[in-house]
Amino acid sequence: MKYTLLLIALCIAATALTSGEYSSAYMATGANITTAPTTTHNPNTTTHNTSTTTLTPKTTVTTAIPSPTPPTNMAVGHYNFSLDGKLCVMIELAIGIRVNTSKVNDTFIVQPNKTTVSGECGDKASTIVIGFKEGQFTLKFRNNETIKKVYVEYVDYDLNYAFKTGELNEYSGKNESLELFSVDLGHSYSCKTETLYMGGGVSLDLTHNRFQAFDFKNNEFGPPELCKADIPDYRVAITVGIILVLLIIIVVIAYLINRKRRTDGYQSL
């Protein structure tokens, strides 16, 4: 019995020792476990700035495509220029600027109701400028006391016009040192039609013309002096008249001769 109790005690002690080793081993293993630090990741808060773009409509500056104006008939304009109440130049005419080149064969007609008038006034020289949207037309008159004549010594024109759609062209020309439309002082120049060649294939067609500068009476045109083309040519009429008279004379002579022959053929009984 004594040995039995001793054996039981030894078993219990062995069991206790074994349990302690396992417990120590467990504790040792637990001490060697490294716990990784816990990192708290703060979420990146990205703030997106929304750009508000305002689209401004583009203002497109467009230039109108030049195009010819509808054709019109020649229109007579009445133009005059005065200074300090004194009439310096007065004209009546229809103006056509005719272009005849390899690209254009057409005429621009000045519309009197779309014109402005300016100029200069003097005792020896006076100028009138007829302006319109597409250009201008200028006449300068000279009072030449030496020959006692008044005439146009300077003609100028400018035209910026499209005879064909999209083809805007500029034409200009001048003639100087001229003696056009010459008349006596106090008289007016009159002509049905006049053509002035300005060079570069451009001519000025002036019709129903009446010009005067200086020495007006009651602000009216003086006695007209006709251009050569309008002066009646009586030579043809005179020639025809002479021929008719000669024919009549010949017929009368022939009749008298024939009558005399018949009279000579009869003998009295």
TrEMBL record:
Q: Which residues form the Lysosome-associated membrane glycoprotein 2-like transmembrane domain?
A: 238-267
Cellular component terms per the entry's GO annotation:
late endosome membrane; lysosomal membrane; plasma membrane
Its primary localisation, in coarse terms, equals membrane
Leader peptide range in chain numbering: 1-20
Key word Heme present:
no
Q: How does it sit in the membrane?
A: Single-pass type I membrane protein
What Pfam families does the entry give? Lamp2-like_luminal (PF01299), Lamp2_2nd (PF21222)
Instruction: Check the record and name the PROSITE patterns matching this protein.
Output: LAMP_3
Question: What's a BP term from Gene Ontology annotated to this protein?
Answer: establishment of protein localization to organelle
Q: Which residues form the Lysosome-associated membrane glycoprotein 2-like luminal domain?
A: 75-216
Alphabetized UniProt keyword annotations = Endosome, Glycoprotein, Lysosome, Membrane, Signal, Transmembrane, Transmembrane helix
Membrane spanning segments where?
236-257
Q: Which domain of life is it from?
A: Eukaryota
Query: Where in or outside the cell is it found?
Result: Endosome membrane; Lysosome membrane
Membership in a protein family:
Belongs to the LAMP family.
Name assigned to this protein: Macrosialin
Organism lineage reads as: Eukaryota, Metazoa, Chordata, Craniata, Vertebrata
**Per UniProt, what is the name of the gene that codes for the protein in this document?**
cd68
